[in-house]
Amino acid sequence: MEKSTSNDQPMRPERKTVEKNRRIRMKILCSKLASLIPQHHITTSKELLSQQDQLDQAASYIKQLKENIDGLKLRKEQAVLQSEGMDTSCSLTSSDDQENKLGFVLPVFELKDHGLGLEVILISGRRKNFMLYEVISILEEEGAEVVSASFSVIGDKIFHTLHAQVTHYL
């Protein structure tokens, strides 16, 4: 039953009703999550799995997708380096003593001029202290405005990409 202490206050549902609604919502969300997992990834029938098993299967599937994404990012970076003429016979996740085999020594700095825009690509090692703000400061001192900056970590390498526009000529 719903109770009210005063005629002015709205009626609040009882605790058991709130809990029942919460459980129903959770059950619906879990079934939606389970429906997103492809059938080939599930080891047994969905009807035979408990809710905890379905959540475990979903977590396993998400981990597998993350590993696939990481592998695809690595392949993409290797393809980019290969298209730019760099040797990618070694993995990008190689250690510092293998950097010479990759065809470059860290850090790598590349500047591409796009008319009134600039693209700066920096590749640095995780273990090397790299001050990105210094590069941004230099660009701004020279009359460029950084409009976006992003980075990706792949193995022991950090890939920074800066996009800047020329604000005024010196």
Provide key terms for this protein.
38% helix; 2 domains; four-stranded antiparallel β-sheet; MYOD Basic-Helix-Loop-Helix Domain, subunit B; Alpha-Beta Plaits; 3 helices; 170 residues; alpha+beta; single chain
Please describe what this structure looks like:
The protein is an alpha+beta fold and 170 residues long. The protein folds into 2 domains: 56 residues, Irregular (MYOD Basic-Helix-Loop-Helix Domain, subunit B), CATH 4.10.280; 77 residues, Alpha-Beta Plaits. Helices cover 38% and strands 22% of the residues. It has a 4-stranded antiparallel beta sheet, sandwiched between helices. Keywords: Coiled coil, Nucleus, Transcription, Transcription regulation. Its main location: nucleus. This is BHLH domain-containing protein. InterPro entries: bHLH_dom, HLH_DNA-bd_sf, MASH1/Ascl1a-like. It is found in: Nucleus.
Q: In sequence order, what are the helices and strands, one letter per element? A: HHEEHEE
CATH architecture verdict of the largest domain: 2-Layer Sandwich
Strand arrangement, major sheet: 1-2-4-3
Number of domains: 2
The CATH topology of the largest domain: Alpha-Beta Plaits
Question: Would you report the number of β strands?
Answer: 4
Strand content: 15-25%
Shape: elongated
Q: Give the CATH class of the largest domain.
A: Alpha Beta
Protein name: BHLH domain-containing protein
Pfam families: HLH
GO biological process, one term: regulation of DNA-templated transcription
Subcellular location: Nucleus
